[in-house]
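Notes from hallway chat w/ T.B., transcribed later so I don't forget. T.B. wanted the structure written out for a chain they're using in a teaching module, and asked if we could keep both sequence and structure tokens in one place. Agreed to drop them here.
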Amino acid sequence: MPLGPGNLTATLPSWRAGLIKKMAQSVVEVMEDAKGKVPENLLANGVDLTSFVTHFEWDMAKYPAKQPLVSVVDTLAKQLAQIETDLKSRTASYNTLKTNLDNLEKKSMGNLFTRTLSDIVSKEDFVLGSEYLVTLLVIVPKPSYAQWQKTYESLSDMVVPRSTKLIAEDNEGGLFTVTLFRKVIEDFKTKAKENKFTVREFYYDEKEIKREREEMSRLLSDKKQQYGPLLRWLKVNFSEAFIAWIHIKALRVFVESVLRYGLPVNFQAVLLQPHKKSSTKRLREVLNSVFRHLDQVAAASILDASVEIPGLQLSTQDYFPYVYFRIDLSLLD
């Protein structure tokens, strides 16, 4: 790759694993009912991430080595930026749909005091179209079923005899209907409350119930239609983003090595994977011992983190006698 003084100081994108992790998390969120299959959908060029990294080869077709370094960097940066922009728009649309669906589903959960009743009641449970009569819904604690049956007709005047019916139950109580004259609604509510019976505010509206049910069906259908295309897009573009990210890592190793050790190019890039977290410290000690002679300033900075290394944008804590970049593949942690 042609290099000149200007190219060496080109600003490589400091793209961290943020975008890659966002895409991995998006796959987790989309595959909410099949999270165990997420790893098999997070591939790079059709292979698992470890295999891709350990067998990495520069893609000459996508990123020609004969181009100036700054052009290659610009291509990589634009590719990742476009993927990130598309990710935001695509997931925003899907997440909005999912949120609306979750909100509707939550309405059908919970206890009889809070949940929607549109999927419980039916038209036959109510007296409708009457100028004088109305049907109320009353929540009765389970231990009080017998008391309700004995007393509901006498809680107020003008209660229709034998008009109560149990139409739903949860762990705490049951939902009963009762029919009475409209003029005694407030009196009935007061007497019911005194007896620890709760009148649930609900009036049967067939159009509203139909609208709610149609909205649920529409959202379920829309989510199903968007699921496949979005997952396929995530799989393809996760692979593209990961591959671009590893190419940037390779570029940074190359540029930092030339900046640090000069021309002609004479360095070897290797991958090292400690088997345990505890072995990372030991690996550092060995590497620092082996390569200490390459950079005495770096060796000193290991002991004194306050030493500044002119011309480099790495923090002293990440500066070693050798060029080092971390590749974190634990995207689902």
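Follow-up for T.B.: The first strand starts at residue 133 and ends at 141. Might be a good example for the class.
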